[in-house]
Amino acid sequence: MPVFPVSHPFLRRFDRWATPALALVGLGLLLLETRHPLRRRTRPRPERWLRNAVLAAPSLPTARLTLLPAMVGLAQLAAPHYPARQLARLPAPVRLGLEVLVLDYLAYSWHRLLHAPLLWRLHRVHHNDLDMDLTTAWRFHFGEMLASIPYRAGLPALLGIRPATVLAYEAVFEACAAFHHSNWRLPLAVERRLVRVLVTPRAHGIHHSVVHRESQSNFGVVLTLWDSLHRTLRLNVPQQALTIGVPAYPDYAHQTVAQLLALPLAPSEPWVRPDGTVPARSAPAGPLEALIY
Ligand SMILES: [Zn+2]
User: How far apart are CA 108 and CA 126, in angstroms?
Assistant: First the structure.
């Protein structure tokens, strides 16, 4: 049984259905964030889009050719063993619900690990984008895709989660990542309701703040439940007060594709600006879990 079954029927189905659906979601979000922008842009879109597209050019195929096949291959290898056999005894809807919750918790905890020193070397390529919009959702170093294989494909397999569920969740994961990275200004009343369940553009914008404490919040991918449980939910920062990025990299001129691809080789930087100042915010604008404009 291959570990990376690149042409497995599940993956061909993913290509046939999930990929075009995700492209449509992306197109819809692009139109929405253009018509109803949330945060002011600091850079012209074409220059960032081009850079983000060039970074996505190796990372998306890397995900399709390694991470996604490993999700299927490793789950199939683990299927005859104990956890999967135990899960198979559960009623189908209970098993599916449990699998989805476990996968989303793994996505949350993996994202927290990405902010730990070693993996931050890779993840900061995503975070040092100076604005955040739909294209930020695809701006990942290809090394982050490879590094995620043991956690995002290996652990679900060890826990007995079925490959079809892992791939279906992956499609939802991608759609939610596109949504919460987008610069779409949802009506505040709608987003206040939505954020009780799902990670929203305002919530994830706070995660991309240059203020350290704010970047250490809102790690969730689909559900906000895990941030609530771990007390990492922070919604009380106005979007117009946010500066997006990593303080050590405020200069677009020092973010060429070559520099970004080589960034994982450099040690993690202290959370300060090049002039030594530390981005800070004096007083919170309201209760921690209250979403404000
Ligand atoms: Zn992050």
Answer: 16
- How far does the centroid of ligand 1 lie from the alpha carbon of residue 219, in Å? 7
Tell me, in angstroms, the distance from the centre of ligand 1 to residue 139's CA. 12
How many domains, the chain? 1
- Residue 244 in 3-state DSSP? strand
User: Do the domain assignments include residue 253?
Assistant: yes
In a domain, 272, yes or no: no
- CA 208–ligand 1 middle distance (angstroms): 7
Please tell me the distance from the alpha carbon of residue 246 to that of residue 125, in angstroms, as a whole number. Answer: 9
| CA–centroid distance for 27 within its chain | 18
**How many angstroms does the Cα of residue 148 sit away from the middle of ligand 1?**
14
Determine the structural domain holding residue 86 and report its residue range: 11-35+49-265
pLDDT digits (tens, 9 = 90+) for 137-163: 999 999 999 999 999 999 999 999 999
Whether residue 3 lies inside any domain: the answer is no
Which of 22-53 are b and which e, b meaning 16 or more Cβ less than 10 Å from the residue's Cβ? beebbeebbebbeeeebbeeeeeeeebeebbe
- Centre of ligand 1 to C-alpha 204, Å, is 9
Query: pLDDT tens, 121-138?
Result: 999 999 999 999 999 999
